[in-house]
Each structure stands twice: as C-alpha cells, then as structure tokens.
Amino acid sequence: MPFAVVLILLVVGSILFHFLSPWTFTELASNWGMVDLTVDITLYVTGFVFVVVNLFMAYCVIRFRHKKDARAAYEPENKKLEYWLTGITAVGVALMLTPGLFVWAKFVDVPEDAHVVEAIGQQWHWTYRYPGVDGKLGEVDAERISADNPFGIDPEDPHGQDDVIVYNPEAHIPVDRPVKFLLRSKDVLHNFTVAQFRVKMDLVPGMNTFMWLTPTVPGRFEVLCEELCGIGHFAMRGAVVVDEAADFDRWLAQQTTFSEQSARAAGNATIGAAQYAVCAACHGSQGEGNAALNAPKLAGQPAWYLKRQVMSYKTGLRGVGPGDTYGQQMVGMVATLPDEASVDNVVAHIQTLPDNATVTTIDGDIARGQKLYTVCAYCHGGDGMGRQALNAPRLSGSSDWYLARQLRHFKEGVRGAHPKDYYGYQMGLLSQTLQDEQAVDDIVAYINTL
Ligand SMILES: [Cu+2]
Q: What is the pLDDT of the chain when averaged over all its residues?
C-alpha cells in the first residue's frame, strides 16, 4: 500500500512540478517555433505514458495486493491486448518522430538570401568572421593559424582581404534576416548554442558544419558551448547581439578587416617610453611593481595580455566591479593613452623592460598548491608562462600579493563582473575551484616556485 501511495504522489508531484516550476523554456527569439512544438509533442506523449503507466501500476498494487488464499491466474497470451498495445505504441512513436523529420528538412534547407557569419570555436572561447563587401569569405587553412593570423586566412586569397574579423566572443546579427552560421573548430569538439534560438550544432575539427535561423527579437543572447566533457567548455561564454539593421551596419563598419589587421603598425617603444612616465609612478620605472601602491609588476607579461587589459580598462570592462578600488585607479590612468596606437606604444615599451625576480611575500602549502594548480595548467601552462591561444596570461614571476588579490577578486566577482568581460568572467568561473582562503595562498606559493 505505501508503494502505491508513493507512485500516485510521484505522478501528482511531477504534474505539479511541470506546471509550477520556474524552469521553463527561455523566450523564443527566432523562427524556430517548430522546434518548441516538436519538444512539446514529445513531452505530451511521454508525459501521457508516464502518468498512465504509473497510475496503472499503483492500481495493480492496490487491486492485486496480497490476500490469503488468493491465487493468480496464468494468462501469458492475449492477442487483442497485444494488438492494442502495439497500435498505441506505434502511434505514439510516430507522433514523436514525424514532426522532427519536418523540422530537419527545414533545418538543412538554408534560405537563398541568408547572410553568412562564421563562428569559430577553440579552447576556450569564440571568435567570428564576416564576409567583406565582396560577400565571400576567404580561404582558410589550419596550418596558417598563428598569433598574427588567428583565423588562418590565406593572405594570397583576394576574397579574404576584406573579411571582417571579430577576435572577441561577441557577434552581432541583424534582426529579421536569415543568417547562416558556418561553424569551424580549431581543436576539439564544441557546440554552438543560443538557447533562445532553439537550434544548435556541433563544431567538429576538420569539418565545416552549419545552422541557420532568422532572429526575431532584438537583444543580447548568451552563447554557450554545450559540449560538456573537458575542463573549460562550461566557461566558453559569448553573446550574439541581435540589432536593428542600421545598428548592425554601424557595428560592422567599426570592425577590423583582415587587411587592416595585417597592415597595423607595430607599437613604437620609443614613443611609448615617454607615455610610460605616468605609469612608472605606480608600476616602477622598470615595470617591477610596487606593493605599497598596489600596482603589480608589468615587466615580463606578454604584449597581447597587457594590451587587452589596458583596452578593458579603457572600454569600461575592467575596474568597474563592486568595490574594485584598485581597478578604479587604473581606469583613471589609462585615460592618458588616447587611442589604440598609444596603447600599442606603451605596451611595446613595457616589452623592453627587464624581467627581474619578484620578492616572495606569500607562504602556503606548496604541495597542496601544486595539486590545485593542475587545473590552472590547462590554460596558464604547466610552467605558468601563460598561453596566448587560450587568452591566459603569465602567472609565474608575477607579484605574488597581486595574484592572490586577483584570485580573491575573481572569486568574489569584483573582477570579471562586467557581462562583456568574457575572459575575466571565464577566470571567475575557474577561480571557484579554489574553495577556501587557504587554497589561494597555497596555489600562489606554488606559482612562486615555477
Ligand atoms: Cu567548447
């Protein structure tokens, strides 16, 4: 009897949960209402079977419960019942599968007028490429991928010169226009998903996959990687911003083309030296850092990272978290660098500064720190030298008090708080692997030994 009650409660509870729970579909923002319908049909068919089977079981438990002297009748065959059950099951299965065939037929039939956006997945972020005015994407080759040509575009191919490259996890698309996402992975399997669009697709290394949709609602939608094995896919966040046509055109015009990027002048260290005078007041004339002023060592940190941080301060992505008083100081300081070229110059100057050893200020359990560091090594490298392809800066040889403070700030959401600070946000998710205060000191003590 208690078992029957549990079954009935299970059914009633599941139905209540379905209607009352706050976990429902996100609002649909594309043409793919068909997908929702298909999911609903499947849910109703399986839900109906779930309710009927469980209630029938409860009924049997009550109706045929143990009674003294009662004997069960043996009835192994019942043709009529079997016809019924086979028929009903066939109808149920067909109801679940047929709509999917129609959806798939539409999914593989990309509208002629769809414009193309290439989304590229790599450990652990997204980047995008748009065809330029010629409407064609240039040839790419994995062998050409390098720090200066992260998309592997063929410099000889004229179609590639005007390709618009977005080295950043945020894409824009215009509303109400069909878009075909071409999907390419640089390393492992990824999966490009925007929940509100309902369609998603795997990125397979060595293959080009695609999906299409027509966005119907302007707004900013989060991109997830739904390939969940491996250490970092969950932290591969990005966004697709659906714009009105005019806003989209304006945004696209502001982006860099491949030829513009190739032609960009390298930073000038001599000009940068003059600009660095301001920075030296806090970071030291050799970029060695100054603990009393809370300013970290900059010497030895790679140019791409320094530049991204300075640009993040300039564009309001860093130094804006709740209570980030140290970051706020930097926000004021980067105002002395008026444009991107001046940032390149000052960064070029920092590259010329000697990478002197820092003073150790933090003690901790090095053995425990080493164990904790295994996760970090995936992105920052086993030697802590950082890995540009993964956007992860150098940690070894840095001011240790600064590393510890950054880790605490990541954990508390002081750094990585801005919704567009994708790399800070990613590190914020990873900092949660350090579960207590002591772990921060232990891991920094280990980094000091690298
Ligand atoms: Cu991924």
A: 91
Domain that holds residue 315: 265-356
Domain boundary among 263, 295, 325: 263
The CA 395 to ligand 1 mean position distance, Å, reads 24
Question: Are residue 122 and residue 160 in the same domain, yes or no?
Answer: yes
Per-residue DSSP letter, 154: -
In a domain, 71, yes or no: no
Q: What pLDDT, in 10s, does the model give residues 40-56?
A: 999 999 999 999 999 99
Ligand 1 centre distance from Cα of residue 415 (Å): 23
Distance 46 CA to ligand 1 centre (A): 31
- Domain identity same for 131 and 23: no
Q: Does 439 reside within a domain?
A: yes
Q: What does 250-314 look like in DSSP terms, one character per residue?
A: HHHHHSEEHHHHHHPPPP-HHHHHHHHHHHHHHH-TTS--BGGGTBPP-TTS-HHHHHHHHHHHH
* Domain end among 263, 291, 326: 263
Q: How confident is the model at residue 214 (pLDDT cuts 50, 70, 90)?
A: very high
Task: Give distance in angstroms: CA of 427 to centre of ligand 1.
Answer: 15
Query: Using one digit for the tens of pLDDT, what is the confidence trace for 329-370?
Result: 888 888 888 888 889 999 999 999 888 888 888 888 889 999
Percentage above 70 pLDDT, the chain: 100
Q: Which residues contact 192 (CB under 8 A, 6 or more apart)?
A: 119, 121, 126, 181, 183, 200, 201, 203, 211, 223, 225
Rounded to the nearest angstrom, the distance between the alpha carbon of 318 and the centre of ligand 1 is 25
Cα of 426 vs centre of ligand 1, distance in Å, is: 12
pTM: 0.84
- Distance from residue 234's CA to the centre of ligand 1 (Å): 7
d(CA 282, CA 292): 9
In the reported structure, the alpha carbon of residue 36 is separated from the centroid of ligand 1 by a whole-number distance in angstroms of 25
Distance from the CA of 312 to the center of ligand 1, in angstroms? Answer: 24
